Amino acid sequence: MSRFFSEKYKALDVYTPGEQPKDMQYVKLNTNESPFPPSEKAQAYAAKAAERLQLYCDPENTALTKKFAEVYGILTDEVLFTNGSDDALNFSFMAFCDDAHPAAFADITYGFYPVFAALNRVPYEEIPLNSDFTINVEDYLGVNKTIFIANPNAPTGIALPLSDIERILQSNPGNVVIVDEAYVDFGTESAVSLIHKYDNLLVTQTFSKSRSLAGGRLGMAIGGAPLIQDLNTIKYSTNPYNINSMTQAAGLGALEDGEYFRSNCATIMENRAYLAEKLAELGFVMTESKSNFLFAKHPQLDGEKLYLELKKRGVLVRHFTKERIRDYNRITIGTKEQLDILLKNIREILEENA
Fold first, then answer.
1. 24 pLDDT above the threshold of 70
2. Over the Cα atoms of the chain, what is R_g?
3. Is the pTM of this model over 0.90?
4. Which strands make up the sheet holding 285-286, listed edge to edge?
5. Strand pairing partners for 124?
6. What torsion, rounded to 10 degrees, do the Cα atoms 150, 154, 156, 160 define?
């Protein structure tokens, strides 16, 4: 870093995104992208929008917001679109956390939470998961902090029922509870249905996973109008034109093409069950995933070694070095063909290390 870099950021432990290597062609199962392309309607709408890129995009995301509100049964002032859900999460740390309102989240969860906390100089508490990687709901009752819960959790894939989310909301009425639903479309009930019941609930979601728009960078925050107004204050103080015209158009097309979205989600859940069965036959242990990935380990094979051996063979999965989970790898659910290539290579690696 340069000698001019601000002291307040020099100690930042930055977020490390999944690998995007270019040295060879990989079967890419490491960053939880969809294996399917955007819908044809999303692509066509984006291409049409490209014809007017000399003009600024709509800062209010009018057409996209109207369609989303219609599809999800909410009002237009109850959703804010952001540059990926990471933006919505960062805005939440900025808007709802400070010295008087510290943050709280699990010790094993989305790696951006502690980064956002440090970036915004927010004190925070990491609450340990149980030994089986489940959340102990009792640990979150009455903590009187701004709570961030990834549901399903990442990288474990384990989901909380809405009844537990409600207990947490009810016991922390003076703080916002942010439920990060990046993977909600793969078998978990969304908390969006509760936003009219609890004024301290904010839900974040993304088009990156289930709607095949990871490269488009489109996320959203959903909650009561006062909370959305708070986030809009942050947005209009940082980047009013936060969603480019092509992404707005692609998002609208994706929302209109609901059948394509539902079909892809169903296929990914079928492929998840297929991979889980085959890995179990090979001796792997897994958490119960409700996401578009599996979190798996083999009792006879080091997690990092498996990751490195697969990478040599052109298959990418995600390995984490944190002590509690270093024996595990997170495997994105791809196409059946991709999963069969993964399984073939895993079998070979296990035979070589028998």
1. no
2. 20
3. yes
4. 285-286, 293-297, 329-332, 318-319
5. 103
6. 10
Q: Residue 1's pLDDT is what? A: 83
Strands 329-332 and 318-319: antiparallel
- What's the whole-number mean pLDDT along residues 215-244? 98
Report, as an integer, the average pLDDT of 98-106.
97
CATH architecture of 40-257: 3-Layer(aba) Sandwich (3.40)
Rounded Cα gap, residues 334 and 342, in angstroms: 10
Give the three-class secondary structure for 129: coil
Angle in degrees, CA 202, 208, 213, rounded to 5: 130
Write down the CATH superfamily of domain 7-37+259-352: Aspartate Aminotransferase, domain 1 (3.90.1150.10)
- Span 309-338, average pLDDT: 97
Of the candidates 191, 85, 179, 87, the one whose C-alpha atom is nearest the C-alpha of residue 135 is: 179
Per-residue pLDDT tens over the stretch 155-176: 999 999 999 999 999 999 999 9
